[in-house]
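Hi R.,

Here's the chain you asked about this morning:
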Amino acid sequence: MIGTLPGHDFTLFCNDLVRAEASRIRLAQPFVDDTVRETAPDGGVDLTIGEPDAMDRPTSWGDWLPEGASAWQYKSGKCPPAKKLVEVEFQKWKVLETISRGYPYCFLTADSISPTKAERIKNALEEIYRAHG
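And here is the predicted structure, written out as tokens:
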């Protein structure tokens, strides 16, 4: 079960999934940066996808990766409530930088959460995006 993976293993698992999808859509691997370490001050982001130029852009982004640049955060273990995420995780510098640039910020949790909790997290992120224009 994914929810029981330790933090580092969950990060590696998610990184592999993103890299596999990037490969599938023919996004060059150098655009995927998964060198962030969990114990380093990472600004709240575990992986970034850089903005490819016109020559390196995939012809189709598929349904899984957002088009263009994006930032990804993974949460192993129990997913905090939306209020706590807003107060802590979503206030980290790299998260806010991503949002202020208008890039997609992708939050993945290993926890099984209810549709209500997922909606609260989505609404909280949308509010932060609105606050940044």
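One quick note: The chain has one domain: 2-131.

Cheers,
M.
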